[in-house]
Amino acid sequence: MGTRGMVLGCLAVILLQLVDAGLIKKLIRHQRETLAPLANTQANVNTTIPSSNRPVVFNHVYRINVPASALCSVDLEAPASSELQPPTTQTTEHTLDSDNQIVFTHRITIPRQACACSDSLPDLKELMNRLEVLEEEVSTLRDQCSTGTGCCGAHVTGELGTKPYCNGHGNYSIDTCSCICEPGWKGPNCSVPACPNDCQDQGRCVDGVCVCFDSFTGPDCSVATCLVDCGENAKCIDGVCVCADGYTGEDCSQTACLNNCLGRGRCVDGDCICKDPWTGLDCSELICPNDCYDRGRCINGTCHCDKGFTGEDCSERSCPGNCNGRGICVGGRCMCSTGYTGDDCSTLTCPNNCNGRGRCSNGMCICNSGYQGEDCGQLACLNNCNNRGQCINGQCTCDIGFQGEDCSEISCPNGCLNRGRCVNGQCVCQEGFTGEDCSIRTCPSDCYGQGNCVDGSCVCYAGFTGQDCSELTCPNNCHNNGRCVYGQCICNEGFIGTDCRDKTCPNFCMGRGHCVDGQCVCWEGYGGEDCSELACPRNCNNKGRCIGGRCHCDEGFVGDDCRQLGCPNHCSGQGHCKDGQCICDEGYVGEDCSEDLPTPEGLKFRSVKDTSVEVLWDPLSIPFDGWNLTVRNTKEENGQIQTTLPREKTRFELSGLGPGQEYEVKLGVLKNNTSGPPAVKKIKTKIDAPRQVEVRDVTDSSALVTWFPPEARVDGVTISYGPSNNPSERHSVDLSPTDTQYHLTNLKPNTEYRISMTSKRGGLTSGPALRTFNT
């Protein structure tokens, strides 16, 4: 009873507080009754089965009035029809002890109009907070009674916690004064299970489970079922039987034909009965005419004939390549059109069968070497003359500026004057010639840079001499007392000094004194004419006997000390001895220089021209090696040109000479590299006429004549002109040597004129330079 009193006390305090707040309007019922078990307990009723003793039941019904407020208008005097009705279900909580049960039943109703005014009515908010406190107190009391040590001696069963709003399956909304249920639940307090997707409107929802209408199935009745049993040969998809391969019909019980015979036949027990002209398992193949006569394959009603046959049914023999459209097929063989040949008429024929001088390739003749033309009927030229000439009967007639068998070589000016080779249009001149056309004579070794080259001859600078200016001159020409060798005087016996002007002393004083005006001034200890009054030098090198201080050499040795080899017959006095051999003077030959070389005879000139002259002479009957021909311009001290000729020669043409010049010609006999005394003659070349005469700017009555001056020094130039057929009408005009053009006037129209130009110097006249032209 102590516990029961405590509970009642708590409730009284809470209710008094609520009364004081002015929120409880009237108490509808307050009774004590015995709770009987319900036959149909609702899903949201939590019940603890009572004992036979009658429990104490507190059944409280509260009506909450909401005070008026300026911010919230609530109709508290609602008509009777608007009286708050008890809910269809009520929450009943039972607490059980060993002697008595205490049952608290609460139903608290708040008008819907007050839900939205909770923020503006602090009293209403306070009321709701206090109701929560009441629930917590009851829950605490329940916990205390359920421990077995409190108000109840028996074990407590049933719902022990505070019942949450919306049955724990939703949230209570003050805005709508109702529960907002979680997915899967519905009803005023979210206590009714919901069905998925509302059964898609294809069934009824019973306790959260869809009971589908006929023709539908599935958790949400979304799957359509088939009206017939599809059997094991199909699957039911979206209410339709989808047959497996090889089956057909509404329930897939019939055997199917391949590709449904493609609509070209009837399906009978799985086999196609094809319509004409179709055949095949699925009537997909066309029948070929005459079955292609077994000469081909039937594909889609068309015969693909074997090689060698053709036609719609392969009954005809075919020709290779269908004759390539260049002939007609007769009995499997091609009858080719003109111009074609071969099994399939694919080969072009060649004109005249290439005349047997080539081979036919694709209708074109590939000619053999040496032939050309469409039918190889023409003789070919080497390399087709390189397009630099015309091919005439197999030979090239080259264009101007080209030469050679195939016109591949560029020609050289004036054919290099036969003084060189033509290489790629440039003259490679022979030794002794230079210039664009080898017309200029060169000088030996280019005069070694020690002289000027004039007309092929070196004009040496002072101090130099020789054909190529390679020799040094000797001072005072050795006073004619010796020979000049490489710029040094080799003095004759009895003379000495750099220019051989001093007389020598006997035996050079034997090296034992010095020579003064041909007399030995001996050193101390020596005496005698040649200071030889002592022992012989080097004891005569054991090649002689020393007598009175002088060596008497053995045969074959010479010299003061007999160390030098001697020469036979002392070179006959016509040479000098060197290392036992005679070096003969000019004009002498032989082992001992005892033989004289003759002077050539019959030296004369012929065919004298402005730049050349022919030299002639008599032959010799004695043995000799050849001829030495030397030419020198008399205006020049040096610069002579020397030519060696074979012994059988008796004439030679000198070319490359200067017009109007005087030349000295020497001819000597050569033997053992020694030249004999020469025959000497002089000759003058003729003066030359004006060069490169041209006629320009010709009209019916005038013309301009131009030329280059002659190379020779001349006094003047004469131009003579007139009609070619009437010499009596010729005119002559004398011009100065510096003039290079003359204007002809008063000419007759449509007339051929002849021009002759000559040069004059003293009583000499050049040959004419001739030109013709037409007005």
Automatic annotation (TrEMBL):
Q: Which Pfam families match?
A: EGF_TEN, EGF_Teneurin, fn3
Residue ranges occupied by any EGF-like domain in the UniProt entry: 408-439
GO terms under biological process: motor neuron axon guidance
Q: Where is the signal peptide?
A: 1-21
Domain of life the protein comes from: Eukaryota
InterPro entries, alphabetized? EGF, FN3_dom, FN3_sf, Ig-like_fold, Teneurin
Task: For this UniProt record, give its keywords in alphabetical order, as a comma-separated list.
Answer: Disulfide bond, EGF-like domain, Glycoprotein, Repeat, Signal
Which CDD domains does the annotation name? FN3 (cd00063)
Listed disulfide bonds for this chain?
Answer: C412-C422, C429-C438
Location of the Fibronectin type-III domain: 599-688, 689-775
What name does this protein carry? Tenascin-like
Q: Which organism is it from?
A: Scleropages formosus
